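[Automated response] Your request has been received and processed.

Submitted sequence:
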Amino acid sequence: MSRPDLLALTPQAIASLANLGLVKRAQKEIEQGKGPRLEELADGTVVGSFEDGNTVRLPPGKSLKDSPCTCNATTVCRHRVAVALAYPAFTSASAAPAPEKAAEAAPEPPWSPGSVDDKALEELLPRRSLEHAGALRERGYLAQVRRGTFVGDDVPTVSLATCTVRFLVPRNLGYARCDCSVGTGCEHLPLAVWAFRVADEKDATSREVSVEVARRHVESDEGGPALDAARDLASFLLLEGAQHASTGLAGRFALARSSLADARMAWPLAALEEIEDLLGAYVSRGARYAPAKLAATLAELFARLRAARTGGAVPPRAVLGMDEAPETKLDYVRLVSLGMRLFADGRERRAEVVLADPASAGLLVVRRAFTYAEDQTPEDGAELGRRQGAPGATLEALARGQVVTSGATRQPDRLVVFSTRGLQRTSVTPQSGDWSLLPVPLLVKDVSALEATLRARPPRFLRPRQLAENVHAFEVSRVVDVVYAPGAQRVRAELEDAGGHGFLVELSHRRVAPGALDALAEGLSGRRGQLRYLSGEVRRSARGLVVEPLALSCEGTGVVVLDLQPAAATGPLRTAEDRPPLPPLPAALAELEGCLADAVHQGLRHIVPAWTTRLSAVATRVRELGMKRLADDLGALATSLDAARASGQASDEAALAAAWTDAALRVTVGLEQLG
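Generated structure:
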């Protein structure tokens, strides 16, 4: 008799139930012959005896945490971890050889958590947890279901608005793991099971399925006043423009924000807050303001309001973020840093550290902001790295290390705040830079698969507003070429992933990170040791996948956080001209994106004649390039602009705002797909 649950536990799964440090320690002891002596009893209980006198018993039907160990640890101790890791080898060594002509057993069908019935949930979970889950089900919720093969770390996973549930062992809910503060046996487990049921009914074959589990849905009149207030304010800003509507709007913003918050519409609220921040930056002449950014955020807000009332492939609840909790308390978690990005705006500095959660395959961001007085010199690069990043740790230590924390809270945009209250604590220790245990898709071994995933996503104006959503770690097999463009002050390189697929790396000089380019050039050339991994923010372009790097992991050096490196001479690099011109269609779309952004900056009521000439010219170009529907949208925008100017009536101005939105959304989708 063997234990299928223990055989199904991979080192990655065990690490998510305990922590990676215990797994590595146990693996090392087993390799050195210091592992436990195992015995399997008739009832299936696995007993492990250790040299230190402790004994572990792993009974069938109990999780590692609930299994007894004589060390009396209340969490998953190293003894339980070692027994679970040693069991597959013990089973293989003690198994009797199979008869030569034994009939092959029929392959077991794939297991879905949706096959678990409510009776099993009632037996496993406390009544209060089930009642709370039932109330959430009655209200309705969204989930992203990912089917798994139980090979390596590929396990069935359900991403909910506030947490992620992973089914580590087939047919055994005791090993299901949630990254909420409870961890196992929480109210999110039945929500994940119910989501799998809906996914199995909706689409039984696709690897990933988005589902809405709801007894009622968002109707066109639900949250109507909040949507109307946000739409009216966005229309006013579009018509007046940043140049004419940057001040005196605090009351209107406050009212619209309050209405969206009361209706629990997290994503329109976040977009509105970003618009208000951008307008404030314009008034103060801050570097954060950019017409293109303001235009993109306005278009996103209009898109979410439209989609909430018209419906579509993305459920209204998801478009509006109605299931997002203001904050979510996290369980004991271990996070691995993938680097940091520094930002400068006048006398302000901001640091954002990207942390990967291997257990949930998610990303979290730690943000720190610093404002310098007039008599202070703002710090940059390595100087900022000496500022506090986490309790008892500097930004540099946080950006290069790994974090173990309990009691942290996560906001809807995946910003994380560490707690310093009571027994809740955070520790930051160095990491080796070995990112091989990061799960897919955090770790990219196949760039072509990542590119297909990015292409299949909904447009960004309908996706959740999550920080660092495009940050990944790449396993690097070869650096093909490295060049420096002196005019743009940019290092550009061509790399290959583990499968030999090429991708581009580009990084431009910024004053706040004076040594980033030098460090990148050294890391790519091998002067800091062989490059093993590279992390960065991914974007799709007409030239393929482009990564703006955050950190490098080099053999013998560890993690190199680019923005924290001091300036240093790296020796000559092969120089090259700035990037070649874009192909005609992406170039036309980029020109049109800038044209529509200028309209937001000026305001549609205050457009100068030169703008209409520019719009007409680019409309002709896109029609010649075969984008007839976009050209028609641009023609409708020009016609609506003339009608609104002639009449000044509210209905004509509303049609003008709608025409601008049509064109802006089509350009956004075009750039994403062509990219």
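Summary generated for your ticket: The chain has 20 helices and 25 strands. Residues 405 and 426 are 4 Å apart (CA to CA).
If you did not submit this request, please reply to this message.
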